[in-house]
Amino acid sequence: MKMTEYLRDKILLLVLHAGCMLLLAGFLHATGYETGYGMLILLFWVLVLAVWLGYGYYNRKCYFQELETTLERMDQRYLLGELMPVSHRLEDQLYREMIRISNKSVIERIRQIEDEQKEYREYIESWVHEVKAPITSIDLMCENHKDDVTRRIRLENQKIENYVDMALYYARSDEVYKDYVIRRTDLQESAAVVLKRNKGYLIRSGIHAEVDCGDPAYTDEKWITFILNQLVLNSVKYRRETGARIWIYTEKYGDGVRLVVKDNGIGIREEELGRIFEKGFTGSNGRKRERSTGMGLYLCERLCRKLGIVIKADSREQEGTEIVLEFPVSRHLLKD
Predict the structure, then answer these.
(1) With contact defined as beta carbons under 8 Å apart, do 329 and 216 qualify?
(2) CATH second-level architecture of 184-335?
C-alpha cells in the first residue's frame, strides 16, 4: 500500500478538514482575531492532522503486510479468514467475519466436489473390473477358435482393453500414492511384457521391434509398464507403411537411467511438438490416421509427473519420433 493510495482513500476526510480550516480562518478574521495567531492555530491543526494520517498509514500498512505474509505462507489460501491478524477496527472485524462465512461455504463446496469425484472414481474402477471379464472371455474364445475372423476380433478386443486400461489409470492418476511401490525394476522385462501383449497388433502392422534395456530403474513396475504400453501403441499407430521399426533401449546418464522409445514413423510437425502432452491434442497426424483421443501422451506425462519421471519428446516429420523417460536415482540409494 502506497501513501498516495492511502491519501486518495481519505480524500473526503481531507476535504472536510480543509473546509473546516477555511471556516475557522473566516471566523477568526471576522471577529478581529490577530492574523499571526490564526495562522499558528491552523499550522498546529495541519501538524496534528499530518501526524494522525502518518500514524494511520503506518498502522494500516503493517496490518496489510502481515496479512500478505500470512497469505503467502498458506497452502490453502481459502482459509485466510481463520488466520487473519487481530484488529481493533470494527470494519476489519466485520470483513474477517464475512470472509470466514464465505470460506466456510467454499470448504463445504470443495468437500462436496471431492466426495463426488471419489464416488465417480470408485464407479469407474468398479466398471473397469466388471468389463475386464467379458474382454478376457472374448480373448479366450478367439484363442480357442483361431481363424482370420477371430484374429481380427482379437485385435479389436485388444484395442478395447487398452482404452479400458486408459480409463482406469486416468481415474487413479490423482491418487498414485495409494498404489505405488518404488523398487528396482527390470525394464527389459517390462518392455517384453508390453511387446508380448501387443504381439498380434505388431505382426499385423508389420513392425519389427528391438529391445535392449540392460539398465534397471527405481520406479513402480505396474505404472511404468502402462506408460511404456501407451508409447508403443503410439509408435504403432503412427508407423510408416513399410519397414516400420521400434527401438526400446536404456542408457545411463549421471546418477540415473534413460528409457528411450524410438521409431521411424511419420513423425510430428515441429510446430506441434510442444503441444503433444496437452490434454485432447491430436495434431494433424491424429486427424489423418486412426481415430485419436489425444489422451495417451497426456496421461503418460501426467503419470510421469506423479512418479517423479522426466518425459521428453523429439521428432522430425517423416523421420520418426523419440520419447525419453529419465529415472533419477537418489543419493542414499546409491550409497546403499
Answers:
(1) no
(2) 2-Layer Sandwich (3.30)
From residue 69, alpha-carbon distances to 2, 5, 65, 74 in Å are 17, 20, 6, 9
CA distance 64 to 5: 13
pLDDT for position 333: 47
The rounded percent of the chain whose pLDDT value lies above 90 is 26
Each residue of 53-102: pLDDT tens digit?
999 899 888 888 888 888 888 777 777 777 788 888 888 888 888 888 88
Give residues with Cβ within 8 angstroms of 59, minimum separation 6: none
Q: How many CA atoms within 13 Å lie on the side-chain side of 315?
A: 25
Reading the block at residue 164, the C-alpha cell is: 479400458
Residue 326 corresponds to which amino acid?
E
Q: What is the dihedral of CA 312, 318, 319, 322, to 10 degrees?
A: 20
113: its cell numbers? 466436489
Q: Where are the domains of the chain?
A: 3-105, 184-335
φ, ψ (nearest 5 deg) of residue 316: -130, 135
In this structure, the number of other CB atoms found within 10 A of the CB of residue 310 comes to: 13
C-alpha cell of residue 21: 480550516
C-alpha cell at 250: 536404456
- The structure's pTM equals 0.66
Hey, what's the cell of 103? Answer: 470460506
What dihedral do alpha carbons 211, 242, 299, 199 form, nearest 10°? -50
156-165 exposure pattern, b = at least 16 Cβ within 10 A, e = fewer: ebbeebbebe
